Amino acid sequence: MILMKDIVRDGDPVLRKVAAPVAFPLNKEDHQLAKDMMGYLINSQDPEIAQKHQLRAGVGLAAPQVGRSIKMAAVLVPDNDGNIVLQEILCNPVITRESVRPAALAEGEGCLSVDEDVPGYVVRHDRITIRYQDINGDKKILRLKDYPAIVCQHEIDHLNGHLFYDHIDKKHPFNIDPDAVIVK
Ligand SMILES: O=CN(O)C[C@@H](CC1CCCC1)C(=O)N1NCCC[C@H]1C(=O)Nc1ccccn1
Ligand code: NI
Q: What is the extent of the structural domain holding 95?
């Protein structure tokens, strides 16, 4: 079971590396890691389990955040009513298309690997197309917009050594294109 103590924090170089592609079939260790990463998200979104184990609720987790520099991330994305709209293990994900139109979370972003708050709009793309392989190595395509698109961009960033605050305008953190979608 992954706990907060297993989550690597900003300053550790692993968070700034470009992670290595995963090979299929996944070896036992990487297959178990995928299960454990999704398990963390499921546990963290259950108030009782999260409270018991002091887990910060998360909607995504990338392998570098648990010290493994491989291109694998788990996403478990609820809508505002708490219904799961995206549950997937993204292996070797590549964003093949991205809208010109920007989007940002109204509340800004945080990261389980970044303990301090960094205020400001994290400017991303409102719509993206992702090509990836699932846990079995099957090639998949995802076309996403708004919140699920933002979550996946945050996770794919981790696999390429980027953190959310890299996308905040230092001088004008709350400046954003008037055409941007502000996602609640
Ligand atoms: O790389 C992955 N991470 O760093 C975990 C992050 C990923 C999200 C941040 C913005 C887009 C993706 C994460 O989930 N959070 N960031 C820090 C604390 C809050 C938490 C969160 O947004 N929780 C949440 C939201 C809705 C419903 C349930 N829980
Ligand atoms: Ni993160």
A: 4-183
